[in-house]
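Suppose a colleague, Dr. K., hands you the sequence of a protein chain of 195 amino acids and asks what its three-dimensional shape might be. Before reaching for any lab equipment, you can write down a predicted structure in token form. Begin with the sequence itself:
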Amino acid sequence: MRRLIRSVGPFTLMPRSRQSPFESLARAIAYQQLHDKAAESILKRFIALFPRRRFPKPDELLAMKSMAIRKAGFSRPKIAALRDLAAKTLDGTVPTNRVIRSLDDDAIVERLIAVRGIGRWTVEMLLIFQLGRPDILPVDDFGIRNGFRIVYGLRTMPTPKEVLRFGERWKPYRTAASWYLWRAADRAKQGETVF
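The predicted structure, expressed as tokens, is then:
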């Protein structure tokens, strides 16, 4: 890991904290199983349904007809997930920005995976990229496991349990370790030398 850090340079991850948990998760739902350009196009059409807003509020989403959301490009399962997200935001399951900052990582995961279509990986991405939590290691992420395989010269892909166990030594900075493992995987994918 030391060689990788020297090769990549300083840790430069900057969280995007301006979005509410509702907006971040709605965007995550849009991107699930789609290429970035397709998801961006769907999101633009969806946001255009709410012309007075930068992004719709949960109650506005619930009031919008499903057919309009469908015409924007969302599938029926994603519409159901968006509606569940909106309802769970209104009932407090999905916390506000102020409340989420006071919760520990495990409490956030537990609350947010209650939303249809939101799994642990999605919540971990929110913890890293929006909240800037310092000790997140998303062991189910292919890039993390592949980066680990590359950095440690393994022939086979490590299991999530193996990465989690090894990652204990990186506490309380597992987010930084994750970021570097992603860089290793990206470099290998581009045909660049990792170290």
